[in-house]
Amino acid sequence: MKYHIITHGCQMNEHDSERIAFLLEEMGYEPTAQRDDADFILMNTCLVRENAELKVYGQLGALKPWHDEREGRILAVSGCMMQTGPAQETIQKKYPQVDLVFGTQNIQKLPELIARHRATGERVFDTTPVEEDLAAQYRKADHQFAYVNIMTGCNNFCTYCIVPFARGRESSRRAIDVVREVERLAADGTKEIMLLGQNVNSYRDEDVDFPALLARVAEVPGVERVRFMSSHPKDLSDALIQVMASHPNVERHFHLPLQSGSNAVLKAMNRKYTREQYLDRVRALRAAMPEIALSTDIIVGFPGETEEDHRETLELCREVEFDAAFTFIYSPRPGTVAAKRVDQFVDAQTTARRFQELLDVLYPIFARKNHEAIGQEVRVLVEGISKNDPHRVSGRDAQNRLVHFPGDERLIGQMAPVKITEAGSFALVGEPLFETSTLSAKR
Ligand code: SAH
Ligand code: SF4
Ligand code: F3S
Fold first, then answer.
1. String of DSSP letters for 231-273
2. Ligand 3, residues 15, 80, 83, 326: which to mutate, most atoms within 8 A of Cβ?
C-alpha cells in the first residue's frame, strides 16, 4: 500500500503533512512520488488566499480518474480549508471522489477514520477537534532538518486573515516537551531545527517565554542551527534580540511581516504597530546583529489603501532594504472584517500597478544585497541536488539565502563551508571550501 501527499500552504501545513505521513507509515503505508502508484492520496489544503482554494478544487477534479480507476483507492482532504463549513459542503456535493475529510485539530484520529471508511465504504467527514496530545513525538530520523511545533493557533485577528478561523486560538506546547523533542532529534542527527507557530513571539509556558525557550533549544548539544517562524512585530522583544545575538547558532535571519508601510492601513488591518515602531525593531535587530538578513510579507490593495498609503509602503521598503519578501495581492476572505468593506475595495488595475511598483522597488535591492555577498564565506546546510543542474547541490546559509554550489548527493544533510562567487536576485552561487574526499557518507 502506497501513499502520496500533496501539501499547500505554509510550514504549519508541511509539518502536519509530515505527521500524517508518520501515522500512515505506522499503518504500513509506504511513500510514493508517483500519484498513479498511490493507493491513498491526501491533499492538505490552505485557504489563506482565494487562489489557494481554487487550486485545491482544480486538483481534486483532476484526481477523479485516478480515484475511480481502481476499487479501494482513498482520496482524503485535510488542512485549513476543511475547517470551514462552506468548503466541506462543496466537497460533499460536488466532489464525490473524496472519501475522507478531516481537519487540522484531529490529525491523530486519522487511522480510526480510515478504518471507519474501510469498514463501511461510506464517506467519512470528521473535523471535530480532539484533545491533541501536545507531548506526542513522532520519529523522523532520516532528515537533517526538522520542524518542531511550539504553539498552534492565532489570537491576533488581523482583519484580512482567515488563519485564526481555521487554526483556532493560541495554545503553547509545554517547554519541556519541546526541549525533549529537540534533544531526541539532535541525538538522531538532526542539525537544523525550525520552531513553528503562527506567532512564536507570544509563546508562553508558565515562566518560559519565547526568548527563554529559544535559548534552551539553541543550547541542546548537536543543534547546529535554529530557525523560527513566524513573528509578529508587536511582540518582538529586546530579550529575544539578546538571546539571538548571544547564540551564534540561531539563524542570522528574521522574518518580520510588515504588511503595509502606512499607519492608516496598519490600523485598519489591526496590526497593533506603527511604521515607526516597525522601524525601531529593525534598528534594534541590526544594532545587535549587523549581519542579520530581514525578510517580510507585504499585502498590496488592502481595502481603502490610497495612493499615499501605497507610497508609504514603497518608502518604507526603500528605507529598510529587505533581503527578501513575499508579496501578495489582497484577497477578500469570507467572514473576515476587511472582506466586508466592499465599497472600499481597490480595483484590479490599480492593484496590479501598485504590485508591480512594489516589485520594482524590492527586486533591485535583493539583487544588490546578493551581489554584496560575493566573496563571503558561509555555511550551507545542503538540502538536495539543484533543480536546474545535476552537478550542483543547494541549501540555505545562516541568513536563509539559497546557495548553489558544485557537489553530489553525498553532501545532502551536511553543513558545508562555501565561498560565494556569483549572485542573482534570488540565489547565490559558490564554491566548496573543503575537499570532497573528506566527506562522510550520507546517514
Ligand atoms: N501567521 C503568519 C502567517 C500568516 S499567512 C504571520 O502572521 O506572519 C502569511 C501571509 O499571507 C501574511 O503575512 C499576509 O501577508 C498574507 N495574507 C494573509 N491573508 C491574506 C489575504 N487575505 N490576502 C492577501 N494576503 C494575505
Ligand atoms: Fe493571520 Fe495576523 Fe494571525 Fe498572522 S498574526 S496568522 S496574519 S491573524
Ligand atoms: Fe494556509 Fe493554513 Fe498556513 S490557511 S497559510 S496553511 S495556517
1. --GGG--HHHHHHHHH-TTB-SEEE---B-S-HHHHHHTT---
2. 80
Please say if the pLDDT value at position 441 is more than 50. Answer: no
pLDDT per position as a tens digit, 80-105: 999 988 999 999 999 999 999 999 98
d(CA 180, CA 186) in angstroms, rounded, equals 10
108 burial level (CB within 10 Å; 0-12, 13-18, 19+): middle
| 177, containing H or E segment | helix 175-187
Confidence of residue 442 (pLDDT cuts 50, 70, 90): very low
What one-character-per-residue DSSP string does 390-430 give? TTEEEEE-TT--EEEEE--GGGTT-EEEEEEEEE-SS-EEE
Average pLDDT of every residue of the chain: 94
Q: Ligand 2 mean position to 394 CA, how many Å?
A: 31
User: What is the atom index within ligand 2 of the atom nearest the CA of 167?
Assistant: 6
pTM attached to this predicted model: 0.93
Distance 163 CA to ligand 2 centre (A): 6
